[in-house]
Write the structure tokens for this entry.
Amino acid sequence: MRQQVPDTPAHLRIQADDAPAPVQEHRADAPAPVQEQTGDAHAHFHAIAAEKQQRILQAALEEFAAKDYASASTNTIVARARISKGLLFHYFNDKLGLYLYLLEHVAQKLYGDVMALIDLENDDVFDLMQKTIEAKLGVANRSVLETRLYLRALTGDIPPQAKEALGQSVDQAYDTFALMTSLLNEDYLKEGLDKEKAVQIIYWVGEGITNQLLSTLALEAEGDAYAHMMTYTAGYFDLLRNLFYRSDATPPSRQGKGD
């Protein structure tokens, strides 16, 4: 009697759209691989449907936001994303490649979302810095997992390549604050104050407040905590304004406002 072969368990099956492309014999006149044609190191990933890209990135985000790099499991990621591990590495080469891609993706998203909320025409640099911090907190409040991943990268033990990528993101944030603080109008400053030193102090205070509040928000992520932080930032910049500005200096954007 012919023995019946049991069905493969569902969780071990590879979906048709997840199956790697068949290996093709290379010919001298054959077109170059996708990556060589486009210069895109992740061309295979970018070629799949947007919904599938999002599913993979969301699964990776949930894992790397919850655990440090060493503890994060690609087995967990592929299970959540409903793809095979072979296909994941086909897209990103290895765990580090996935992490680097995700870190850059998250950093650019957070940066873009914040910059979309900032009015660089604001003539009061202290008000601009306060609004920037509020924008960062607002974005963090809506993007909790992304914020947790970013903070883990800043404070945790990550591979050297990831530290380099993160450094580029920090440099981008520094350039933004440098641009804002360069808008500081010397006509408003108290006599004898050095603008460059004032700008550096403003930057340090702004970054210090931002990192402290983002860490708190990532842990609490509650509406009440968010509202309290908005009030918290205003006090610091009112203090800086009083320390640096002449008593009779009132930027146009603050005319009609009470101090």
